[in-house]
Amino acid sequence: MNPSNRIGLIGLALALSACSVLESDKIDYKSATKGATLEVPPDLTQLSRDTRYTVPGGVVSAAAYEAGLAQQPKNAAGAAPKSIGDVRIERDGNQRWLVVARPADKLWDPVRDFWLENGFVYTLENRDLGLLETDWAENRAKLPQDIIRSTIGKVFDSLYSTGERDKFRTRLERRADGGTEIYVSHRGMVEVYSSSQKDQTVWQPRAADPELETEFLRRMMVKLGVSEEQSRAAAAAPVPVAPAARTAVVNGAPVVQIAEPFDRAWRRVGVALDRTGFTVEDRDRSQGVYFVRYVEPNAAKKDQGFLSKIFSRSPDAAPPLKYRIVVRSEGEQSTVSVLNAAGAPETSATAERIVRVIADDLK
């Protein structure tokens, strides 16, 4: 269907359902495709930090919050605990992750099942690296639940689209104490008009949504045995401000400097790489190295249709390049640098873009 007709139909539905309630407080994902995979290189331009979801759990009712407090002991300050049983949620700036006192091997199956139960399919499953990545999916709960969709929409459901797609990467990292850290990172795309006549559309990256990441971490807590009320109380705790990151040049090479010790810098850089779409092939925490693949953006590809451009990759696309993202720390200060595949410092324009996009996500 012509994009303008489809978008026009959605506009008509919205106009006729002025009194209906948008189910923006729910999440109901449907995989966008089970075949071809959306190939999008990291977006190396700074994106505005807007929130496009009203996430259940992002705002917690007083009743639900008090219910969670009533079932858990309080600390001396009277604050809600962030640890329930063997599961706790940690936070650093806009990043959150779970710490579970269970080995990664015991968590792989329940975490894998979690995303399938939430309507996703996988494009990547690597048990050895502890990596799971979903296909692009659409949050169908964001569509208007009006009288038109409740009747013909059930038959012609494909006519309705939010114009947004999401994918999630889950990373399980083994801890020295035998436990596991679980990270969830979000990537988003949005469909926009590419012509003044509004007869063509293209897909472009949109900002990662930390609140959506937190909501899925909260739901994962429930999957791992925490009650609904307890998970909401734990996830609703205030988020401290993380130290800012800045770019610099050291010995002629671009770097990111962070006022944090190694453990936190390592976590923050890992989530930043996941959010910005780098493929992490391996990692060595003892050496502070992430081994990544990066695809150079090809601005010359303008002839493909908006679906083929997003849901397939051109045969003549540039091959991915391999880099090492290295985190080095001295006390409370950490430096993030880019090395080439051979382990030599990278000083190219690509290294500058990689450093910039990492720093932008860490702000």
Choose one word for the global shape: globular
Overall CATH class of the largest domain: Alpha Beta
- Any idea of the CATH topology of the largest domain? Alpha-D-Glucose-1,6-Bisphosphate, Chain A, domain 4
**How much strand?**
25-35%
Query: Do you know the CATH architecture of the largest domain?
Result: 2-Layer Sandwich
Mean residue pLDDT: 76
Question: Any overview of this molecule?
Answer:
The chain has 363 residues and is α+β, with helices and mostly antiparallel strands. It has 2 domains: 1-241, Alpha-D-Glucose-1,6-Bisphosphate, Chain A, domain 4, CATH 3.30.530; 242-363, TATA-Binding Protein, CATH 3.30.310.170. The protein is 27% helix and 28% strand. The longest helix is centred in the N-terminal third of the chain and has 14 residues, at 3-16. The chain is globular and about 55 Å long. The protein starts with a helix and ends with a helix. Residues 6-24, 33-81 and 298-313 have low confidence and may be disordered. This is Outer membrane protein assembly factor BamC.
How would you summarize what this structure contains?
The protein is α+β, with helices and mostly antiparallel strands and 363 residues long.
